[in-house]
């Protein structure tokens, strides 16, 4: 069986290493292949997932939203979030799922962070931010604030999940107990301009969805705050994808080791 990952430019993905290790550990003679897919090739690549020997794909930047219009069915959470990162070829159908959201929920559980009644701030308003917002809203985080550089996308999330949008870091961060970076800032060694982490609650958790050590994580650690990078979420979303394709329990620790080794 074949599983693919479609994204563009698909330069720094750890997913092939994670899934190859999982298939090996489970004695599955499956292959996980990276398919760099520019936007104008997405329709064609999604159609190829219907091949008899193909079980589905992971979908990554920038296709997580466009894929929804190219499959037969969309799972309820992917529909609400408006983005999917996993497609399963089931019978004759392609079904899109969002495992990022549950992956984020499980990553928070790993550090025993219960969002209920917590003041949470999401930086960014793209697909990952929407997955995070859904998890936090359903877990009862309150208040939840989205901060984005451009207002329309932040306003859209705010309307969708009944939360607040602002462009003012100070107002958003004062007393916050959870901050989640759902922007790509940090991937290239870059950092937020003047992010006042000193305004956070002293017991705050700072999560960066970027799965490398970033300036944000380093700054938070230096300020004595708890931190989590994006690797646990990445591993959990991969495990959930594996389970959707194979209907078998994922070898989570094997996948984590593979991600750490490949990072
Ligand atoms: P999107 O492109 O959908 O959204 C990106 C968001 O970041 C937008 O709100 C955008 O603002 C904002 N943004 C982008 N560049 C900048 C910048 N230079 N300054 C300020 N804001 C910026 O991406 P995704 O939501 O899919 O992914 C976001 C991040 O999350 C990525 O780094 C991705 O790798 C990571 N991720 C990690 C996962 C994991 O498992 N660890 C899973 C999914 C994502 P605007 O709306 O104004 O364009």
Describe this structure as you would to a colleague.
37% of the residues lie in helices and 20% in strands. It has 263 residues and is an alpha/beta fold. The two termini are 26 Å apart. The mean pLDDT is 97. The site of NADPH dihydro-nicotinamide-adenine-dinucleotide phosphate (NDP) has 26 residues, from helix 4, helix 5 and helix 9.
Labels describing this entry:
globular; 6-stranded parallel β-sheet; Rossmann fold; alpha/beta; 263 residues; 10 helices; 2 domains; binds NADPH dihydro-nicotinamide-adenine-dinucleotide phosphate; 6-stranded mixed β-sheet; 37% helix
Low-confidence stretches: none
Q: Which ions and ligands are bound to the chains?
A: NADPH dihydro-nicotinamide-adenine-dinucleotide phosphate
Number of strands: 12
CATH C-level label of the largest domain: Alpha Beta
Net shape? globular
Report the CATH topology name of the largest domain.
Rossmann fold
* Major beta-sheet overview: 6 strands, mixed
Bin the strand percentage: 15-25%
CATH architecture of the largest domain, by name, is 3-Layer(aba) Sandwich
Cα-based radius of gyration, to the nearest Å: 18 Å
Structural class: alpha/beta
Tally of discrete structural domains = 2
CATH superfamily of the largest domain: Leucine Dehydrogenase, chain A, domain 1
Strands of the biggest beta sheet: in what spatial order? 2-1-3-5-6-4
Average the pLDDT over all residues and give the rounded result. 97
Continuous helix count: 10
**Helicity level:** 25-40%
Distance between the termini: 26 Å
Helix/strand order, N-terminal first:
EHEHEEHEEHEHEHEHEEHEHH
């Amino acid at each position: 069986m074949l599983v693919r990952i479609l994204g563009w430019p698909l330069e720094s993905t750890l997913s092939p290493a994670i899934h190859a290790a999982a298939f090996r550990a489970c004695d599955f003679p499956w292959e996980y292949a990276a398919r760099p897919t520019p936007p104008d090739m997405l329709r064609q690549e999604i159609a190829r997932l219907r091949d008899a020997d193909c079980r589905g794909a992971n979908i990554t930047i920038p296709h997580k939203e466009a894929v929804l219009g190219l499959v037969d069915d969309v799972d309820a959470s992917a529909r609400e979030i408006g983005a999917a990162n996993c497609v399963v070829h089931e019978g004759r159908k392609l079904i899109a799922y969002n495992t990022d959201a549950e992956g984020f929920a499980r990553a928070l559980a790993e550090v025993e962070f219960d969002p209920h009644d917590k003041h949470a701030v999401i930086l960014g308003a793209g697909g990952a931010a929407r997955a995070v917002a859904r998890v936090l809203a359903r877990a009862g985080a309150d208040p939840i604030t989205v901060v984005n550089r451009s207002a329309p996308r932040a306003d859209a999330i705010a309307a969708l999940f009944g939360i607040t949008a602002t462009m003012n870091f100070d107002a958003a961060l004062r007393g916050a107990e959870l901050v989640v970076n759902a922007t790509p800032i940090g991937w290239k060694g870059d950092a937020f301009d003047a992010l006042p982490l000193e305004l956070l609650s002293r017991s705050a958790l700072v999560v960066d969805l970027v799965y490398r050590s970033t300036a944000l994580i380093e700054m938070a650690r230096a300020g004595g705050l708890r931190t989590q990078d994006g690797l646990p979420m990445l591993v959990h979303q991969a495990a959930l994808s594996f389970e959707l394709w194979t209907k078998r329990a994922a070898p989570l620790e094997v996948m984590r080791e593979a991600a750490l080794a490949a990072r």
